[in-house]
Design a protein that fits this description.
With 454 residues, this protein is α/β, with parallel strands linked by helices. It has 17 helices and 15 strands. The protein has 2 domains: 141 residues, Aspartate Aminotransferase, domain 1 (Alpha-Beta Complex), CATH 3.90.1150; 273 residues, Type I PLP-dependent aspartate aminotransferase-like (Major domain) (Aspartate Aminotransferase, domain 2), CATH 3.40.640.10. The structure holds 3-[O-phosphonopyridoxyl]--amino-benzoic acid. 3-[O-phosphonopyridoxyl]--amino-benzoic acid binds next to helix 6.
Length: 454
């Protein structure tokens, strides 16, 4: 990276001397120095060297309405003046949290009318684990404790979140998962489907849930948690046969179903929630990210009425955070939902942006490096391979990271998950900006192929 602005070096020195960055190799980052992002507007970021970058990841999957929305800044500032903080403990409440609960109930699937607020998606899933076990205890079935999750799912970075997640490299640090959480196969046909057709593999992967329930005993299983489409795992869109079979299994056994909507929620699929896209009927939904478009931290758990009816019989739920339903965050979330609704942003994703992005992305299928392009809504993945027919990778070459670096250097943020390139741009991305994204992506695929052959 060229460094012409002396301030870049100063900030990098601060990073090296004082900052421990999330999901980073501290020592390596010290030597290399982070790229410093200074400001943003629409779908673009600028770094401290003046480079303009198309943000193909909406920050970290969150900036739904795009950067630079004055209304959100105004909502925060007004709320800070009116009531910057108060808690929801000890039988008090404040208008923004209550009005937000109603706004969320209005857009959530039918029968999901209550929200427990948290500060993040991870806290939402921690809350879920405790609420599920509390629920079964109230019902007189305290043995129903086990939560079934999926390998390579992502549910956060707290102890419960990382345990629920199926990332083995996270489990390796800190003796995870905690007891009572087990993982089944993920519906990742491209990587793990072998000789099965996608449809056969989807049914096989769904059947793993039934096998696990029978193995553990339904009397010991509290819930199954899944992202409708896995995000951080590599934008894994399940085969069409997967969720229909899952629905049959979930209907057959007396366990709760938790949809982790932290990435899919708030319009990413072209519907309000990923469960709307697949017609699922969860008991609980974890939310965060798009809830505030990332302008301020906030998460939560949406709970179905029949679950609330049981919880109502259980006395105190001994759980909550200082910042549960924070008034400033709630005011920003309310305004964010208003923008999504009044500007018909999700309808536009559904009718225009998503079909266009998916069509243009699939044009990359003709590239020699590309083994598969898949996606739903404004989520996309490009698999990088050595051989298209056998889906064989360039082993040990770090192709994804090479491609990611070319993208950065050419003004595009596209993430690498292993050798899978992924995108999730702001929902407000225009057709011209989609053209720019795909043109840049193709250029970076060419540069990557050249680097591999050179
Ligand atoms: N569930 C899902 C589905 C997520 O994607 C969380 C829960 C946790 O949310 P918080 O707000 O606690 O971070 C997430 C977060 C990545 C990446 O590398 C993805 C997330 C977080 C950090 C990195 O794609 N998703």
């Amino acid at each position: 990276m060229t460094r012409n602005n002396p301030q870049t070096r100063e900030w990098q020195a601060l990073s090296s001397d004082h900052h421990l960055a999330p999901f980073s190799d501290f020592k390596q980052l010290k030597e290399k120095g982070p790229r410093i992002i200074t400001h943003a507007n629409g779908v673009y970021l600028w770094d401290s060297e003046g480079n303009k970058i198309l943000d193909g990841m909406a920050g970290l999957w969150c900036v739904a309405v795009g950067y630079g929305r004055e209304e959100l800044a105004e909502a925060a500032s007004q709320q800070m003046r009116e009531l910057p903080y108060y808690n929801l403990f000890f039988q008090t409440a404040h208008p923004p949290a209550l009005e937000l609960s109603k706004a969320i109930a209005d857009i959530a699937p039918e029968g999901m009318n209550h929200v427990f607020f948290t500060g993040s998606g991870s806290e939402g899933n921690d809350t879920m684990l405790r609420m599920v076990r509390h629920y079964w205890a109230i019902k007189g079935q305290p043995s129903k404790k086990v939560i079934i999750s999926r390998k390579n799912g992502y549910h956060g970075s707290t102890v419960a979140g990382a345990s629920l997640g199926g990332m083995t490299y996270m489990h390796e640090q800190g003796d995870l998962p905690i007891p009572g959480i087990v993982h089944i196969a993920q519906p990742y046909w491209f990587g793990e489907g072998g000789d099965m057709s996608p449809e056969e593999f989807g049914v096989w992967a769904a059947n793993q849930l039934e096998e696990k329930i029978l193995e553990i005993g339904v009397d010991n299983v509290g819930a199954f948690i899944a992202e409708p489409i896995q995000g951080a795992g590599g934008v894994i869109v399940p085969p069409d046969s997967y969720w229909p079979r899952m629905k049959e299994i979930l209907a057959k056994y007396d366990i709760l179903f938790v949809a982790d909507e932290v990435i899919c929620g708030f319009g990413r699929t072209g519907e309000w929630f990923g469960t709307d896209y697949y017609g699922l009927k969860p008991h609980l939904m974890t939310i965060a990210k798009g809830l505030t478009s990332g302008y301020i931290p906030m998460g939560g758990l949406i709970v179905r009425d029949d679950v609330v009816a049981v919880l109502n019989e259980g006395g105190d739920f001994n759980h909550g955070f200082t910042y549960s339903g924070h008034p400033v965050a709630a005011a920003v979330a309310l305004e964010n939902i208003r923008i999504l609704r009044d500007e018909k942003i999700i309808e536009r994703v559904h009718d225009e942006a998503a079909p266009y992005l998916q069509k243009r992305l699939r044009e990359l299928n003709d590239h020699p490096l590309v083994g598969e392009v898949r996606g739903v809504g404004l989520l996309g993945a490009i698999e990088l391979v050595r051989d298209k027919a056998t889906r064989k990778r360039y082993e040990g070459k770090g192709v994804g990271m090479i491609c990611r670096q070319f993208c950065f250097d050419n003004g595009l943020i596209m993430r690498a998950v292993g050798d899978t390139m992924i995108i999730a741009p702001p929902l407000v991305i225009s057709k011209d900006e989609i053209d720019e994204l795909v043109t840049k992506a193709r250029k970076c695929l060419d540069l990557t192929l050249n680097a591999l052959q050179g």
